[in-house]
Write a structure and sequence with these properties.
By secondary structure, the chain is α/β, with parallel strands linked by helices. The protein folds into two domains: 1-42 and 299-336, no CATH class; 52-225, Rossmann fold, CATH 3.40.50. The chain has helices at residues 17-43, 52-66, 96-110, 121-130, 144-151, 195-210, 216-222, 230-244, 248-261, 266-275, 284-304; strands at 80-83, 117-118, 155-164, 167-176, 182-190. A five-stranded mixed beta sheet has the order 2-1-3-4-5, with helices on both faces. The protein is globular and about 50 Å long. The two termini are 54 Å apart. 31% of the residues are buried.
Length: 336
Protein backbone atom coordinates (compact mmCIF):
# COMPACT_ATOMS: atom_id res chain seq x y z
CA UNK A 1 0.00 0.00 0.00
CA UNK A 2 1.20 3.61 -0.51
CA UNK A 3 3.19 5.21 2.23
CA UNK A 4 1.04 7.26 4.57
CA UNK A 5 2.48 9.81 7.01
CA UNK A 6 1.00 10.52 10.43
CA UNK A 7 -1.15 13.39 9.01
CA UNK A 8 -2.72 11.18 6.31
CA UNK A 9 -0.81 12.64 3.32
CA UNK A 10 0.28 10.17 0.65
CA UNK A 11 3.55 9.96 -1.19
CA UNK A 12 5.89 11.08 1.57
CA UNK A 13 8.78 8.72 2.20
CA UNK A 14 9.25 7.41 5.68
CA UNK A 15 12.26 8.39 7.73
CA UNK A 16 15.48 6.89 6.43
CA UNK A 17 15.75 3.40 7.87
CA UNK A 18 19.49 3.43 8.41
CA UNK A 19 19.23 6.58 10.51
CA UNK A 20 16.35 5.16 12.51
CA UNK A 21 18.10 1.83 13.00
CA UNK A 22 21.29 3.50 14.14
CA UNK A 23 19.44 5.71 16.58
CA UNK A 24 17.45 2.79 17.95
CA UNK A 25 20.56 0.69 18.28
CA UNK A 26 22.33 3.42 20.30
CA UNK A 27 19.26 3.69 22.53
CA UNK A 28 19.10 -0.08 23.04
CA UNK A 29 22.83 -0.26 23.76
CA UNK A 30 22.34 2.34 26.49
CA UNK A 31 19.49 0.30 27.98
CA UNK A 32 21.59 -2.87 27.89
CA UNK A 33 24.48 -1.17 29.68
CA UNK A 34 22.33 0.39 32.39
CA UNK A 35 20.27 -2.72 33.10
CA UNK A 36 23.27 -5.04 33.01
CA UNK A 37 25.23 -2.91 35.44
CA UNK A 38 22.25 -2.70 37.75
CA UNK A 39 21.68 -6.46 37.68
CA UNK A 40 25.36 -7.22 38.28
CA UNK A 41 25.41 -4.89 41.24
CA UNK A 42 22.26 -6.31 42.77
CA UNK A 43 23.41 -9.88 42.12
CA UNK A 44 26.46 -9.39 44.31
CA UNK A 45 24.51 -8.67 47.45
CA UNK A 46 24.90 -10.92 50.43
CA UNK A 47 22.14 -12.69 52.25
CA UNK A 48 21.91 -13.08 56.01
CA UNK A 49 20.03 -16.38 56.16
CA UNK A 50 21.91 -19.65 55.49
CA UNK A 51 21.45 -21.11 52.05
CA UNK A 52 18.67 -23.76 51.88
CA UNK A 53 21.25 -26.37 50.92
CA UNK A 54 23.16 -25.66 54.14
CA UNK A 55 20.04 -25.82 56.28
CA UNK A 56 19.07 -29.13 54.72
CA UNK A 57 22.54 -30.61 55.28
CA UNK A 58 22.60 -29.53 58.91
CA UNK A 59 19.10 -30.90 59.53
CA UNK A 60 20.05 -34.21 57.89
CA UNK A 61 23.18 -34.43 60.04
CA UNK A 62 21.22 -33.97 63.25
CA UNK A 63 18.63 -36.51 62.13
CA UNK A 64 21.31 -39.08 61.24
CA UNK A 65 22.93 -38.75 64.66
CA UNK A 66 19.54 -39.06 66.36
CA UNK A 67 18.81 -42.40 64.67
CA UNK A 68 22.42 -43.63 64.52
CA UNK A 69 21.63 -46.88 66.34
CA UNK A 70 19.13 -47.84 63.65
CA UNK A 71 21.47 -47.35 60.68
CA UNK A 72 22.52 -50.46 58.74
CA UNK A 73 25.92 -49.84 57.11
CA UNK A 74 26.16 -53.51 55.99
CA UNK A 75 23.48 -52.76 53.39
CA UNK A 76 25.46 -49.91 51.84
CA UNK A 77 27.17 -50.23 48.47
CA UNK A 78 30.96 -50.37 48.51
CA UNK A 79 30.87 -47.97 45.59
CA UNK A 80 29.73 -45.15 47.91
CA UNK A 81 32.82 -43.34 49.19
CA UNK A 82 33.44 -40.31 51.39
CA UNK A 83 36.71 -38.40 51.75
CA UNK A 84 37.56 -36.80 55.09
CA UNK A 85 39.80 -33.79 55.72
CA UNK A 86 43.24 -35.03 56.70
CA UNK A 87 44.14 -35.31 60.36
CA UNK A 88 46.66 -32.58 61.17
CA UNK A 89 47.15 -33.08 64.90
CA UNK A 90 50.45 -31.49 65.92
CA UNK A 91 50.98 -29.86 62.53
CA UNK A 92 51.95 -26.20 62.40
CA UNK A 93 48.89 -24.04 61.69
CA UNK A 94 50.66 -22.37 58.76
CA UNK A 95 50.63 -25.74 56.97
CA UNK A 96 47.05 -26.70 57.75
CA UNK A 97 45.74 -25.61 54.35
CA UNK A 98 47.94 -28.24 52.68
CA UNK A 99 46.02 -31.09 54.30
CA UNK A 100 42.66 -29.67 53.28
CA UNK A 101 43.87 -29.09 49.74
CA UNK A 102 45.33 -32.60 49.43
CA UNK A 103 42.16 -34.24 50.71
CA UNK A 104 40.03 -32.23 48.31
CA UNK A 105 42.19 -33.03 45.28
CA UNK A 106 42.02 -36.68 46.27
CA UNK A 107 38.21 -36.46 46.41
CA UNK A 108 38.14 -34.85 42.96
CA UNK A 109 40.38 -37.58 41.53
CA UNK A 110 38.31 -40.40 43.03
CA UNK A 111 35.19 -38.87 41.48
CA UNK A 112 36.70 -39.42 38.02
CA UNK A 113 35.98 -43.13 38.20
CA UNK A 114 32.50 -44.21 37.14
CA UNK A 115 32.74 -47.10 39.58
CA UNK A 116 32.57 -44.83 42.62
CA UNK A 117 29.91 -42.50 43.99
CA UNK A 118 31.42 -39.74 46.10
CA UNK A 119 29.45 -38.36 49.05
CA UNK A 120 28.40 -34.72 48.74
CA UNK A 121 30.96 -32.49 50.43
CA UNK A 122 28.47 -30.28 52.25
CA UNK A 123 26.62 -33.27 53.61
CA UNK A 124 29.88 -34.75 54.90
CA UNK A 125 31.08 -31.44 56.32
CA UNK A 126 27.78 -31.01 58.19
CA UNK A 127 28.31 -34.35 59.94
CA UNK A 128 31.92 -33.50 60.82
CA UNK A 129 30.79 -30.16 62.22
CA UNK A 130 27.94 -31.72 64.19
CA UNK A 131 30.39 -34.16 65.79
CA UNK A 132 32.67 -31.20 66.61
CA UNK A 133 35.57 -32.72 64.73
CA UNK A 134 36.20 -29.92 62.23
CA UNK A 135 38.02 -27.50 64.54
CA UNK A 136 40.13 -30.20 66.22
CA UNK A 137 41.26 -31.78 62.95
CA UNK A 138 40.59 -35.25 64.36
CA UNK A 139 38.50 -36.76 61.58
CA UNK A 140 40.94 -39.68 61.62
CA UNK A 141 40.90 -43.46 61.18
CA UNK A 142 39.14 -43.93 64.53
CA UNK A 143 36.27 -41.62 63.59
CA UNK A 144 36.03 -42.63 59.91
CA UNK A 145 33.76 -45.70 60.27
CA UNK A 146 31.22 -43.80 62.36
CA UNK A 147 31.18 -40.88 59.95
CA UNK A 148 30.69 -43.35 57.10
CA UNK A 149 27.62 -44.80 58.80
CA UNK A 150 26.17 -41.33 59.37
CA UNK A 151 26.62 -40.20 55.75
CA UNK A 152 25.66 -43.64 54.42
CA UNK A 153 29.03 -44.28 52.78
CA UNK A 154 30.36 -47.83 53.04
CA UNK A 155 33.97 -46.73 52.58
CA UNK A 156 35.66 -43.64 53.97
CA UNK A 157 39.04 -42.36 52.84
CA UNK A 158 41.04 -40.72 55.62
CA UNK A 159 44.53 -39.30 55.80
CA UNK A 160 47.09 -37.71 58.09
CA UNK A 161 49.98 -35.27 57.77
CA UNK A 162 52.99 -34.86 60.01
CA UNK A 163 55.99 -32.55 59.82
CA UNK A 164 59.45 -34.10 59.46
CA UNK A 165 61.84 -31.21 59.43
CA UNK A 166 62.27 -30.03 55.85
CA UNK A 167 59.81 -32.64 54.59
CA UNK A 168 56.31 -33.78 55.43
CA UNK A 169 54.88 -37.25 55.85
CA UNK A 170 51.46 -38.14 54.46
CA UNK A 171 49.49 -41.35 54.87
CA UNK A 172 46.12 -42.41 53.48
CA UNK A 173 43.82 -45.28 54.39
CA UNK A 174 40.34 -46.67 53.73
CA UNK A 175 37.85 -47.48 56.50
CA UNK A 176 34.86 -49.80 56.15
CA UNK A 177 31.73 -48.48 57.87
CA UNK A 178 30.24 -51.98 58.19
CA UNK A 179 33.22 -53.86 59.63
CA UNK A 180 34.60 -50.75 61.40
CA UNK A 181 38.07 -51.67 60.22
CA UNK A 182 40.58 -49.20 58.81
CA UNK A 183 43.37 -50.29 56.49
CA UNK A 184 46.36 -48.19 55.39
CA UNK A 185 46.49 -47.71 51.65
CA UNK A 186 49.57 -45.58 50.97
CA UNK A 187 52.18 -43.37 52.59
CA UNK A 188 54.84 -41.02 51.28
CA UNK A 189 57.33 -38.36 52.27
CA UNK A 190 57.27 -35.15 50.30
CA UNK A 191 58.72 -31.70 49.99
CA UNK A 192 56.52 -28.69 49.47
CA UNK A 193 57.17 -28.56 45.73
CA UNK A 194 56.36 -32.28 45.39
CA UNK A 195 52.85 -32.06 46.85
CA UNK A 196 50.90 -32.24 43.60
CA UNK A 197 52.90 -35.22 42.28
CA UNK A 198 52.53 -37.01 45.62
CA UNK A 199 48.76 -36.54 45.58
CA UNK A 200 48.57 -38.37 42.24
CA UNK A 201 50.58 -41.27 43.64
CA UNK A 202 48.21 -41.48 46.61
CA UNK A 203 45.14 -41.38 44.37
CA UNK A 204 46.31 -44.31 42.24
CA UNK A 205 47.18 -46.32 45.35
CA UNK A 206 43.72 -45.70 46.83
CA UNK A 207 42.12 -46.91 43.59
CA UNK A 208 44.21 -50.07 43.81
CA UNK A 209 43.25 -50.57 47.47
CA UNK A 210 39.57 -50.34 46.54
CA UNK A 211 39.95 -52.74 43.64
CA UNK A 212 39.01 -50.11 41.07
CA UNK A 213 40.46 -50.65 37.60
CA UNK A 214 40.61 -47.35 35.76
CA UNK A 215 40.01 -47.04 32.05
CA UNK A 216 42.80 -45.36 30.04
CA UNK A 217 40.66 -42.21 29.78
CA UNK A 218 39.99 -42.18 33.53
CA UNK A 219 43.66 -42.73 34.31
CA UNK A 220 44.63 -39.83 32.06
CA UNK A 221 42.01 -37.61 33.73
CA UNK A 222 43.28 -38.49 37.21
CA UNK A 223 46.87 -37.79 36.16
CA UNK A 224 46.06 -34.20 35.12
CA UNK A 225 47.47 -31.50 37.42
CA UNK A 226 44.90 -28.81 38.19
CA UNK A 227 47.70 -26.31 38.81
CA UNK A 228 51.48 -26.16 38.89
CA UNK A 229 51.54 -23.12 41.13
CA UNK A 230 52.16 -24.17 44.75
CA UNK A 231 51.09 -20.77 46.10
CA UNK A 232 47.79 -21.09 44.24
CA UNK A 233 47.33 -24.59 45.64
CA UNK A 234 47.91 -23.35 49.20
CA UNK A 235 45.32 -20.59 48.66
CA UNK A 236 42.97 -23.25 47.31
CA UNK A 237 43.54 -25.42 50.38
CA UNK A 238 42.82 -22.46 52.63
CA UNK A 239 39.52 -21.91 50.82
CA UNK A 240 38.63 -25.59 51.20
CA UNK A 241 39.23 -25.33 54.94
CA UNK A 242 36.93 -22.30 55.18
CA UNK A 243 34.34 -24.20 53.17
CA UNK A 244 34.59 -27.17 55.56
CA UNK A 245 33.95 -24.76 58.43
CA UNK A 246 30.98 -23.26 56.53
CA UNK A 247 32.79 -19.91 56.28
CA UNK A 248 31.69 -19.51 52.69
CA UNK A 249 32.44 -15.80 52.27
CA UNK A 250 36.05 -16.48 53.34
CA UNK A 251 36.12 -19.47 51.00
CA UNK A 252 35.09 -17.24 48.09
CA UNK A 253 38.00 -14.92 48.90
CA UNK A 254 40.37 -17.88 49.02
CA UNK A 255 39.30 -19.28 45.65
CA UNK A 256 39.61 -15.84 44.08
CA UNK A 257 43.14 -15.59 45.43
CA UNK A 258 43.99 -18.99 43.95
CA UNK A 259 42.66 -17.86 40.57
CA UNK A 260 44.62 -14.60 40.81
CA UNK A 261 47.82 -16.56 41.42
CA UNK A 262 47.04 -19.00 38.60
CA UNK A 263 44.46 -17.77 36.07
CA UNK A 264 44.45 -21.27 34.48
CA UNK A 265 43.34 -22.93 37.74
CA UNK A 266 40.02 -24.21 36.33
CA UNK A 267 39.19 -26.31 39.41
CA UNK A 268 39.36 -23.24 41.66
CA UNK A 269 37.19 -21.30 39.24
CA UNK A 270 34.61 -24.10 39.15
CA UNK A 271 34.56 -24.25 42.94
CA UNK A 272 34.11 -20.49 43.13
CA UNK A 273 31.08 -20.71 40.83
CA UNK A 274 29.62 -23.44 43.02
CA UNK A 275 30.28 -21.88 46.41
CA UNK A 276 29.43 -18.22 45.76
CA UNK A 277 25.65 -18.73 46.10
CA UNK A 278 26.19 -20.49 49.44
CA UNK A 279 27.87 -17.32 50.68
CA UNK A 280 24.92 -15.23 49.54
CA UNK A 281 27.00 -13.86 46.68
CA UNK A 282 27.01 -14.05 42.92
CA UNK A 283 30.19 -14.68 41.01
CA UNK A 284 30.88 -12.25 38.19
CA UNK A 285 30.01 -14.89 35.59
CA UNK A 286 26.66 -15.70 37.18
CA UNK A 287 25.85 -12.02 37.66
CA UNK A 288 26.56 -11.27 34.00
CA UNK A 289 24.48 -14.24 32.86
CA UNK A 290 21.50 -13.11 34.92
CA UNK A 291 21.98 -9.51 33.78
CA UNK A 292 22.04 -10.58 30.14
CA UNK A 293 18.87 -12.63 30.46
CA UNK A 294 17.10 -9.83 32.29
CA UNK A 295 18.20 -7.27 29.72
CA UNK A 296 17.21 -9.36 26.70
CA UNK A 297 13.77 -10.00 28.19
CA UNK A 298 13.24 -6.29 28.74
CA UNK A 299 14.48 -5.30 25.27
CA UNK A 300 12.44 -8.01 23.55
CA UNK A 301 9.38 -6.81 25.43
CA UNK A 302 9.80 -3.31 24.03
CA UNK A 303 9.90 -4.48 20.42
CA UNK A 304 7.42 -7.37 20.47
CA UNK A 305 4.47 -6.03 22.46
CA UNK A 306 2.78 -2.62 22.68
CA UNK A 307 3.32 -0.78 25.93
CA UNK A 308 0.26 -1.11 28.14
CA UNK A 309 -1.10 -4.10 26.19
CA UNK A 310 -3.17 -2.01 23.72
CA UNK A 311 -2.69 -1.54 19.98
CA UNK A 312 -3.09 2.18 19.35
CA UNK A 313 -3.14 3.36 15.73
CA UNK A 314 0.22 4.58 14.54
CA UNK A 315 2.07 2.33 16.98
CA UNK A 316 4.60 -0.32 16.08
CA UNK A 317 1.81 -2.83 15.39
CA UNK A 318 0.09 -0.56 12.87
CA UNK A 319 0.58 -1.90 9.29
CA UNK A 320 1.24 1.67 8.17
CA UNK A 321 4.20 1.90 10.51
CA UNK A 322 7.54 1.56 8.66
CA UNK A 323 8.64 -2.09 8.62
CA UNK A 324 11.66 -1.53 10.79
CA UNK A 325 13.73 -4.53 11.85
CA UNK A 326 16.34 -4.06 14.56
CA UNK A 327 19.04 -6.67 15.18
CA UNK A 328 20.76 -6.46 18.54
CA UNK A 329 24.12 -8.11 19.13
CA UNK A 330 25.19 -8.53 22.76
CA UNK A 331 28.73 -9.71 23.41
CA UNK A 332 29.49 -10.94 26.92
CA UNK A 333 33.14 -11.06 27.92
CA UNK A 334 33.46 -13.06 31.14
CA UNK A 335 36.11 -11.56 33.43
CA UNK A 336 38.40 -13.90 35.31
Amino acid sequence: MPNVDRTGHRGRRPQDRSTCSCSATRWVTFVVAVVALSACHNGASRGNAPHPRIREAEAAARQAIAVEAQLRPDTLSVQTVGVLPFDQTGLDSSLSSIGYGLADLLRVDLSKSRQLRIVDRIRLDAIVRELELAASGRADSAAAPRIGRLVQARRMVYGALDARGATMGVSVGVADAATRQAQPAASAEMRLDDILDTEKQLAFRVFENMGVALTPAERAAVDERPTKNIAAFIAYGRAVRYETEFRFADAVTGYREAIRLDPTFALAEARLEEIAPLAGMSSRRNALARATGFTVDRVNGLFTSPIGGAQPPGGITDPAFPALTITIFITIITPR
